[in-house]
Amino acid sequence: MIKETNGKLGILMPGLGAVATTLIAGVIAVRKGLSQPIGSLSQMGTIRLGKRTENRNPLIKDMVPLADLNDIVFGGWDLYPDNVYEAAVNAKVLDRYLLEQIKPDLEAIKPMPAVFQKEYAKRLTGEYIKPQTNKMELAEALMEDIRKFKEDNDCERLVMVWCGSTEVYIEEGAVHQTMEALEEGLRNNDPAIPPSMIYAYAAVKMGVPYANGSPNLSCDIPAIVDYAKENGGLVAGKDFKTGQTLMKTILAPGLKARALGIKGWFSTNILGNRDGEVLDHPDNFKTKEVSKLSVLEQILEPEKNPVLYKDLYHKVRINYYPPHGDNKEGWDNIDITGWLGYPMQIKIDFLCRDSILAAPIVLDLALFMDLAQRAGMSGIQEWLSFYLKSPQVGKGLYPQHDLFKQKEKLHNTLRHMAGEDLINHLGLDYYQDEA
Predict the structure, then answer these.
(1) Does a structural domain hold residue 433?
(2) Residue 143 and residue 198: Cα distance in Å, rounded?
(3) Which of the ends of the chain has fewer CB neighbours closer than 10 A, N or C?
(4) 350 phi and psi, to 5 degrees?
């Protein structure tokens, strides 16, 4: 039984930069009838129910009780004190004509001072940050922010989605294994606890679902996962699936389905926004590189078909190029083999807008995490892997990267919540019981 959506849903975002301001401005524009929520599965996606002969294909938002866009309140933290209008103008994602039409709404949303430590994002300088230096005190300050935001905005429920920068690469260690160890690490300022993990800790302790839109370790540790599972909390991660990785998870399953070989896949990106500047440092790039490189390995499974994929050479590059701003360009060169080993090539030049692709992902993750909590789910929400580059999974499991399998898992989870039959597309006994 899914609890109904009574009252307001607060969406809190650490990082009110390009992605978050594009989301906020977009939702306000949709509310005012100025645009459409294109790219949002929760708003524009349909879902098949029952047999094909029944012709039941409602909008997802009409099948399950999602929070209405008019009942959403936005808030968050940032390194700079700019209100959302000022931040959106600086981000240069949306045109000024649209922003001017919704300027008062955007100006009313102001960030809270952020948790920031420069050693984790070396190309950034925090100007608007919390004064505490102890990590447990910073976590307590975030929890007070959460309490105050909920009260001040009369919210019934909250969700947190990390929209901040990629942090330096950190591997799971002893401090991450239990909540007791993590809390001791917070009190002792353990360097293996970055800002994003402090936000994740604060969220789960407050019973707020937490989704991680970056490749940071963040909530992907046993301490937070176990605590969430035991206490009805929800977590999902990692890294919004936009741009080049989106193309890989679309194209690679198709090549594999046709049993075409792949010898090499070279990928390079150029982008000029704050994310590009952060990733220009090698310590931060490594975190993103690990996320991006894992995709093909899982989809193609070279150990199961070594003739086609064992010699795959996969290279990823990200280059900071300020003139592009938020307009990211992804180049891919793919060397494939066909019948009798004859070589062919595929070349892709995807001129995308990173925040335009990411904004509807943030919306969907927030709405679906809220839905899952009202449905009594807890722990890792693997069914939301559809939106993520490096999906978070349970211990001992491998992530599923095939976009089409991810979509079926998402749809079947929604069908299950709604009490509908799951669909497997077998089509057995077609003439008697068409599936």
Answers:
(1) no
(2) 10
(3) N
(4) -100, 105
